[in-house]
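Form P-L/3: holo structure prediction, ligand magnesium ion.
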Amino acid sequence: MNNVVMKFGGTSVADADAIRRLVEIVRGEARRTGAPPVVVVSAMSKVTDAVLRMASEAATGQRETITAGVDELRQRHLTVAEALVPAAQRGPLVEQLEQQISELRAMLTALSILREASPRSLDGVASAGELLSSRVVAGALAASGFDAVWVDARRAIVTDDQYTVAAPLTAETEAALAREVTPHLAAGRLPVLGGYVGATKEGVATTLGRGGSDYSAAIIGAGIDVAEIQIWTDVDGMLTADPRVVDTPRVVSHLSFGEASELAYFGAKVLHPSTILPAVAKDIPVRILNSRKPQVAGTMITATPPRNERPITALACKRNVTVVEVTSTRMLMAHGFLRRLFEVFERYRTAVDVVTTSEVSVSVTIDDNRRIGDIAHDLREFAEVAIEPEMALLCAVGENLRSDPAFAIRMLAGLDGIALRMVSQAASRRNVTVVLRDADVALAMSQLHDAWFAQPETPKPLEAVR
Ligand code: ASP
Ligand code: MG
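OUTPUT (holo model):
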């Protein structure tokens, strides 16, 4: 299929101006592909937070906040609808919004009377944000000359009943999409759906977990097998380094799903990679694009690594980690020692990130140091323990590292003069990680970034990379 899925995040549908930009972006894509796209939208920014907050307040019996909160949401959506849809066409849209708003008000009132908010009722409330925003966007597209149709996401995505973190049922969803979405595309109509929302087989509303609109876009794109999935957001894409640490990071134009996953772990997450798995599994490229700069190429993520010459794809760091060094001359190489050691971390539900070992000691890093006192206490029952706070992980990520045996050496040479505490080449061989003092991380990252991303690069226009 020529069709693409275009997903717009909360800030890209936040107000009338944002939705006007959306309309022009959609127009450009429809013209380019010669086929209508499927448009998937988040709730307007902050709406999901607001409705969930109202739900928890309602559940404690606070009824006053419901009226004001719902009135504000109603006003926000109606104001945008008025700005985008001429009065003569607006009637049905306003009626649908009013209907959705009264349902929300009724649900919240029910919660306040029952004084409960089960995951199932929370999903009923949470789905209101996307149901409202998608109505407004469908109305705005129709008013701008598109043959746009609103599709109820609760009829298009079928999930299990794990409310608030529901998982799609693949076969059922494919059948539902074939019924609810594909016929519109075949007839040249442009379907608009709210992301994040689905329903069980019985038709009870569910949500896919916070940030789940990206997941919806991937599920829909994979289900109807589109040519490309576009995630329109408010940043240029994935960056070559953390912008809080390096002054002039660049946009990574193309990365593999594996690279995106490694970077996400370090907090460089424009989107959560697991949410695009359905697309990656079907080898559908996912593009991250900036709705405020639609002419800029952004970042493309594909299942297989891009072919290129660059030594690495990006740098990432995780700051303020703690190194725990465990030394035991007596025990270390005895079998069962590592199990005993890791059991301590497991006991206190603390994840270990990097591990290095020597003949007499094991060093590990942990991100969450809240239980460090207990951990040290239990480890001291069988070993000596040294704790080093204020350390950082600095990591180079790139598929090309696999075929470059000398990379780690060059990376270490590039860090000449900086004290390194641990070095690790991951089993995936897609990353090399060093552990250093947090105070050194900015210098270290800039030094490596300058070495590998030296020539300034102007962002490519989107047209140039098609
Ligand atoms: N509106 C939902 C949230 O805020 C889903 C999304 O925006 O992706 O989590
Ligand atoms: Mg999001």
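COMMENT: The pocket of magnesium ion (ligand 2) is lined by residues 9, 42, 211, 213 (CB under 6 Å).
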